[in-house]
């Protein structure tokens, strides 16, 4: 169910959340494609995500300061405002650890707090990215199933060569594929 905001000119508010995966660089390509489509894109990242991609790339592409602090120097309560602002929240890439945090309902960092504050008022999409064994572990599988049952859309991983050199499932869906899915969502 989409909110009625910003629908007139086709521009939507997309909250792109990043967590700590080696594939985080792909979020820059996705953000760029969404900005070119005329959407407003706001990035939020976990501390670990910023080990893999620098804020400057995301800020330059989106022309918005990256959000990372739960306790920011701001008069606004960021996680509530961001969840309210978003027409779509996309966790891209979604690490095993962040998926576990969402399933546990922990709100210890900005990305997890946004998940709770949104409460599926806007679509919440999760694009896992991890080693095959991490993905197939019962802990991760159970976490994913619960998040799906609650209303999150899980974007299936791709099969291929992984960053660790192994071949299998767990590759983050390519930016072009998720971009097409977002186009379809917003018609
Ligand atoms: C080089 C490297 C690559 C990693 N890639 C992944 C990954 O693709 N997926 C994943 O779930 N964790 C990966 N991790 C582990 C996470 O970064 C780690 O669990 C981190 O605590 C996740 O934090 P976050 O979920 O708060 O972002 C990787 C770690 C390293 C050192």
Question: Can you put this structure into words, describing what you see?
Answer:
The chain is of the alpha/beta class. The chain has one domain (13-185): Flavin prenyltransferase-like (Rossmann fold), CATH 3.40.50.1950. Helices cover 42% and strands 19% of the residues. It has nine helices and seven strands. It has helices at 26-36, 49-52, 55-62, 78-85, 96-104, 110-118, 132-136, 138-150, 175-185; strands spanning 13-18, 40-45, 88-94, 124-128, 153-154, 158-161, 167-171. The strands form two sheets. It has a five-stranded parallel sheet with strand order 2-1-3-4-5, with helices on both faces. A two-stranded antiparallel ribbon has the order 6-7. Strand 6 (158-161) and strand 7 (167-171) form a beta hairpin. Helix 4 crosses helix 6 (110-118). It is globular and about 40 Å long. The chain starts with 12 loop residues before the first strand and ends with a helix. The relative contact order is 0.17. Flavin mononucleotide binds at residues 19-23, 46, 48-49, 95-98, 129-130, 134.
The level of helicity is: 40-55%
Low-pLDDT ranges:
none
What's the architecture in CATH terms? 3-Layer(aba) Sandwich
How many helices does DSSP assign?
9
What is the global morphology? Answer: globular
- Cα(first) to Cα(last) distance is 13 Å
How would you classify the helix and strand content by structural class?
alpha/beta
Please indicate the percent range of residues in DSSP E strands (runs of 2 or more).
15-25%
Bound molecules: flavin mononucleotide
Query: Whole-number average pLDDT?
Result: 94
The overall number of domains is 1
Radius of gyration: 15 Å
Total E-strand runs = 7
CATH class, anyone? Alpha Beta
Output the CATH topology: Rossmann fold
CATH superfamily: Flavin prenyltransferase-like
Main beta-sheet strand count, sense and barrel state: 5 strands, parallel
């Amino acid at each position: 169910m989409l909110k009625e905001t910003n629908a007139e000119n086709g521009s939507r508010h997309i909250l792109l959340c990043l967590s700590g995966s080696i594939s985080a660089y792909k979020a820059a390509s996705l953000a760029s494609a969404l900005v070119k489509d005329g959407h407003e894109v706001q990035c939020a990242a976990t501390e670990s995500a910023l080990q893999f991609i620098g804020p400057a790339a995301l800020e330059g592409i989106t022309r918005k300061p990256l959000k990372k602090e739960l306790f920011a120097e701001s008069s606004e309560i960021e996680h509530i405002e961001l969840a309210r602002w978003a027409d779509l929240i996309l966790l891209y890439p979604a690490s095993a650890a962040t998926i576990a945090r969402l399933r546990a309902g922990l709100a210890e960092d900005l990305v997890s707090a946004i998940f709770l504050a949104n409460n599926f008022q806007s679509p919440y999409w999760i694009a896992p990215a991890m080693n095959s064994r991490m993905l197939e572990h019962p802990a991760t599988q159970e976490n994913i199933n619960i998040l799906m049952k609650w209303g999150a859309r899980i974007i299936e991983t791709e099969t291929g060569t992984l960053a660790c050199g192994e071949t299998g499932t767990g590759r983050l869906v390519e930016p072009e594929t998720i971009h097409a899915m977002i186009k379809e969502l917003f018609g």
